[in-house]
Write a structure and sequence with these properties.
This protein is an alpha/beta fold and 553 residues long. The chain has helices spanning 73-77, 80-93, 97-112, 163-169, 189-194, 219-227, 236-243, 249-254, 273-286, 293-298, 302-308, 335-341, 361-364, 400-412, 414-419, 465-471, 495-501, 509-518; strands at residues 11-16, 19-25, 43-47, 49-50, 116-119, 123-126, 129-132, 138-139, 152-154, 176-180, 209-213, 231-234, 258-261, 325-329, 347-352, 355-359, 372-376, 379-383, 428-429, 442-445.
C-alpha cells in the first residue's frame, strides 16, 4: 500500500524495536540481517487495518430487529426495541465494575481477531474527568507513538450556536471526527450538514474535518466537502440496515474526497472490517458504482492513515513505519480481493508495534508469549494480551475467557441485572488513580450515543447518561428488559446473525443472498417471531412512571 501500490510475491518484512526496518525479496537477505530468525507465514502480509468509526462500547450486543425503514437517526433511537436491546443493556454494562472490565477486554479482542490494529478508542468518565483507555489495539484518540496526532471525536451534531467554535477547532492538530447528516437526504438529517455554514457564508469544513456516515449529503453537498478538503467515513452495512440507503461514495471518490471504511457497531449488523469490506464490495458491484477492490482495501489501510495525518507512520508496509501488520492465509490471486474475501478463520497473525498479539498458536509463539488460547470461528487461536502496566482505572485486566463468561451471564440475566441496579454501587473505583481524580471517584464506561430526550437524574447525567436512560424516562428499562445473547467474536459460525440477516428488509436482497456464502453459510429464509411485538413502538408508548432520585435508582 505504498504510493506505487507495490505487491511483492515473495518477500520478507524485517522488524526491529517496533518498526519495519526493511522489506526485501525473499532471496535477498541483507548482510546486516544475516542470521536473524525469519518466520514463514504461508500467507499474505497486509498493513494492519485502521478503523475510524466503531462504537466499541456496544459491541458485546448482537444485531437487533429493525422493524421498519427509518429516515434519520432519531427515528430508531426513539423505539422500545432500541432501548430494550441496545441503550438500556449498554447502560447497565457501562456502569457495573465487573462488566466494564469484561466489555473492554471483549470488544477490543473482537476487533483484533479480524485484523484491525487501530480503532476509535474506549473512554472512561468520572465527571468532569475523561480517561482514555490504552490497551492492545492502537487507539486513534490516544496514540502511543511519536508523531501521531490524536484524533478528536465530537459526539452530537454541530448546531448554529456552536458552528464558530467548531470551525475554530478545525485549525488544531488531529482529525476532527463527527457524525454527519445520518439519515436520508430528504429528511431533516441533511440540515445538520447545512448547519455547518456560518451566517457569513463560510463553512466549518477543513482538511481535518471527517464526517461519519454522510448519508444525508447530496452530490452538491459532497462537492462542498471536497472544495474544503474534508473526508468521510463510510459504514454501508449499518446504513442499509437502518435507512435502506448509504452515502454517495462513488461521487465522493470522483470528487477526490478521502473515504475510509468503518463498521459502526454490532447492534446494526457489522462486527468488524472484514464484514464491512464484503458488504461494500457486494453493494458496489450490484449498483455498478465502479469502486475497485483496491480502493476498498485503501479505505482500511493507507486512506484512514492519511485522514488521521499518520501516513508517515502507518497504513503501508515500508521501512521506517510502525510494525502494525495482519497476515491472511494464502498468497495467490489478486491481493485486494484476497483480503476482502477473508473471514476471521483466515487471520493467521496480528502484530501491533512489532508485538504479536493474536494468531495461530504456531505463528504467535514465534514472536510473543501466549497468554491464552480460545476457539474463534471454529479454530483454535492464541492471544498475547499482556501489557507492561495495568490501566490505572481498570487495574489488572481480565483474560478473554473470563470476560466472555462474565458478559454472557450478565446479558442472559439482563432483567435481573437491570432490576438490581443500585446507585450506591455503580462505577469503578480507580485502581491507582488518574490525574485530577480523588481516591473515591466512580468511573463509568462512556457510551458515545446521545442520551434520550426527557430523561434526567441529577448528578448522573454528566457521567453516565446511558444509565440514566436505563433507569427512568417513559418507563424503567427493567420493565422491558429481556435476556440477550452475547454477540460472538466472529461473524463466521454465528447462526443467530445469519438468521437475523434474512429478516433485514431494508438491506438489498443481493447482500442478504450473497453475504452468507462468503462465510460458508447458506442464505436463510425470512422467519417470523424474531423480536417482540412492541420493538418498533416509540418510547413514548411505554407506561409513564414517576421520576426517581439517584438514591432510589
Amino acid at each position: 500500500m505504498d504510493a506505487s501500490r507495490t505487491v511483492l510475491d515473495e518477500a520478507i518484512v524485517w522488524v526491529a524495536d517496533g518498526f519495519i526496518s526493511d522489506v526485501t525479496a525473499a532471496d535477498q537477505i541483507p548482510p546486516d540481517q544475516a542470521g536473524l530468525p525469519v518466520i514463514p507465514t504461508a500467507g499474505t502480509i497486509y498493513p494492519g487495518m485502521i478503523e475510524l468509526h466503531n462504537h466499541l462500547a456496544y459491541n458485546s450486543l448482537p444485531l437487533f430487529k429493525i422493524p421498519q425503514r427509518y429516515t434519520m437517526r432519531e427515528g430508531w433511537q426513539g423505539t422500545i426495541g432500541y432501548r430494550r436491546y441496545v441503550s438500556g443493556a449498554a447502560g447497565v454494562i457501562s456502569s457495573v465494575p465487573d462488566l466494564i472490565r469484561a466489555t473492554i477486554r471483549y470488544v477490543e479482542c473482537k476487533s483484533l481477531i479480524a485484523g484491525t490494529t487501530t480503532s476509535q478508542g474506549l473512554t472512561l468518565r468520572s465527571s468532569p474527568i475523561q480517561h482514555l483507555y490504552k490497551g492492545i489495539v492502537r487507539n486513534a484518540e490516544l496514540p502511543d507513538a511519536p508523531g501521531l496526532d490524536p484524533a478528536r471525536p465530537k459526539i452530537g451534531d454541530v448546531t448554529p450556536d456552536d458552528v464558530t467554535a467548531f470551525r475554530e477547532s478545525l485549525a488544531g492538530k488531529g482529525a476532527r471526527i463527527l457524525h454527519l447528516a445520518e439519515g436520508l437526504p430528504t429528511s431533516p438529517a441533511r440540515q445538520h450538514f447545512l448547519d455547518l455554514q456560518a451566517p457569513d457564508g463560510s463553512w466549518a469544513i477543513a482538511p481535518t474535518f471527517v464526517g461519519i456516515h454522510a448519508t444525508g449529503l447530496t452530490d452538491d453537498d459532497l462537492a462542498i466537502v471536497a472544495q474544503h478538503g474534508g473526508s468521510i467515513v463510510w459504514s454501508p452495512f449499518s446504513n442499509l440496515v437502518l435507512y435502506g440507503d448509504t452515502a454517495r461514495t462513488a461521487s465522493a471518490l470522483r470528487l477526490g474526497i478521502k473515504v475510509a471504511l468503518g463498521s459502526d457497531w454490532s447492534p446494526t449488523a457489522s462486527k468488524n472490517l472484514l464484514n464491512e469490506l464484503k458488504v461494500a464490495q457486494i453493494f458496489s458491484q450490484d449498483a455498478q458504482l465502479g469502486i475497485t477492490d483496491q480502493q476498498l482495501v485503501e479505505m482500511v489501510t493507507i486512506t484512514p492513515a492519511q485522514i488521521l495525518g499518520w501516513q508517515d507512520s502507518l497504513g503501508s508496509i515500508e521501512p521506517g513505519k510502525l510494525a502494525d501488520m495482519t497476515v491472511v492465509a494464502g498468497g495467490t490471486g489478486d491481493p485486494y480481493s484476497h483480503l476482502i474475501n477473508a473471514t476471521e478463520s483466515d487471520i493467521q497473525l496480528v502484530i501491533i508495534g512489532g508485538t504479536g498479539r493474536y494468531g495461530t498458536p504456531a505463528l504467535l509463539a514465534n514472536v510473543s508469549p501466549i497468554d491464552e488460547q480460545l476457539v474463534v470461528a471454529g479454530d483454535t487461536r492464541a492471544f498475547h494480551l499482556d501489557t507492561k502496566d495495568p490501566d490505572p482505572v481498570l487495574g489488572a485486566a481480565l483474560s478473554l475467557g473470563d470476560a466472555t463468561t462474565i458478559l454472557a451471564d450478565a446479558l442472559e440475566h439482563m432483567p435481573e441485572r437491570a432490576a438490581a441496579i443500585d446507585s450506591a454501587h455503580l462505577g469503578l473505583v480507580a485502581h491507582e488513580g488518574v490525574a485530577g481524580a480523588s481516591a473515591d471517584e466512580r468511573w463509568f464506561l462512556e457510551l458515545d450515543q446521545p442520551p434520550i430526550a426527557g430523561v434526567s437524574v441529577p448528578g448522573l447525567e454528566a457521567i453516565a447518561p446511558a444509565l440514566v436512560d436505563s433507569m427512568i424516562g417513559a418507563g424503567s428499562f427493567a420493565s422491558i428488559a429481556v435476556p440477550i445473547k452475547l454477540d460472538p467474536l466472529a461473524t463466521r459460525g454465528d447462526d443467530a446473525f445469519f438468521a437475523m440477516l434474512a429478516n433485514l428488509a431494508n438491506v438489498p436482497e443481493v447482500i442478504r443472498a450473497e453475504l452468507p456464502g462468503r462465510y460458508g453459510e447458506a442464505p436463510r429464509p425470512p422467519a417470523e417471531g424474531i423480536g417482540l411485538a412492541d420493538d418498533g413502538l416509540s418510547i413514548a408508548s411505554l407506561p409513564l412512571q414517576e421520576p426517581i432520585s439517584p438514591g432510589d435508582a
